[in-house]
Amino acid sequence: MHEAALRRVRDAISDEPARLHRAEELEVIAGLDRWTLARQFRAAYGTSPSRFRTAQQLQTARRLMLEGRPLAEAAALAGFADQAHLTRMFKRAYGITPAAWRAATTIP
Fold first, then answer.
1. How far apart, in whole angstroms, are the C-alpha atoms of residue 43 and residue 76?
2. What is the pLDDT along the chain (108 residues), one digit of tens a residue?
3. Which residue in 54, 65, 69, 64 sits closest to 104, CA to CA?
């Protein structure tokens, strides 16, 4: 397995989750073809680079919401197309909407 190459890809995505890294760019970072990269990334981290990016975006959005940012702003800063996109991905990942999550985590 190409552990150093996979770490470089993981770190590139983690450092800028709002940025869409094209497959060609990830290939260059890893020095691997896209199929080998996808297969080995999944084996090493349990998910695809794309889903890893989405998880990082959701983590960013949660942090921004905890800071009190409006949902639309959190969505934009985390790299989602809009608030509806954030809501769909958030609900798919966590089973609740961002607004419900914020209400449950906010002290009145």
1. 31
2. 799 999 999 999 999 999 999 999 999 999 999 999 999 999 999 999 999 999 999 999 999 999 999 999 999 999 999 999 999 999 999 999 999 999 998 877
3. 65
The tokens 């770190």 sit on which residue?
Answer: 11
Answer yes or no: are the C-beta atoms of 68 and 26 closer than 8 Å. Answer: no
Supply the DSSP string of 3-55, one letter for each residue.
HHHHHHHHHHHHH-TTS---HHHHHHHHTS-HHHHHHHHHHHHSS-HHHHHHH
Q: How is residue 17 written in tokens?
A: 């989750």
Tokens of 12: 């590139």
**Amino acid identity, residue 78?**
A
